[in-house]
# Entry
Amino acid sequence: MRSINVSKRISAAPAKVWAVLADFPNIAAWNSGVTKSFSTSDSTSGVGAQRHCDLAPFGALEETVKEWDEESRLVISIDSAKKLPMAHGLATFTLSPAGEETTVTIDYAYQPKFGFVGQILGSIALDGQFTKGFNAFLRDLDKAARK
# Structure
């Protein structure tokens, strides 16, 4: 497994940030990296909720909520990744109050495809691409939480 970590102070209280993240099936409404998203389970929130995401410019994810701690922590399992060089992953979102703002930290662990070659590819290119993507995610989350 490879891992990355990104963090950003968001100009909104934890309740507002959480409200955006808690609308689990509708991530495409605010995340520029997702072109289409929808629920694939009866539950749309809480542990066990599942969604499908079509990514820009290509690829798709199937995800499941593993932990759901209101306004503080969300853990999402990336169960499958289509047309992407990763097999699966685990994204942990931690919200920390900072006055009227919120520091959001993302810890992302993933398993590259292609064995040893994938591990090398991860260290050369994938870590940087995922870091860039999660930083864009945090900018979009900041914007959505301030609406």
Observations:
- The chain is about 25% helix and 45% strand.
- The two ends are 36 Å apart (CA to CA).
- The first helix runs from residue 14 to 22.
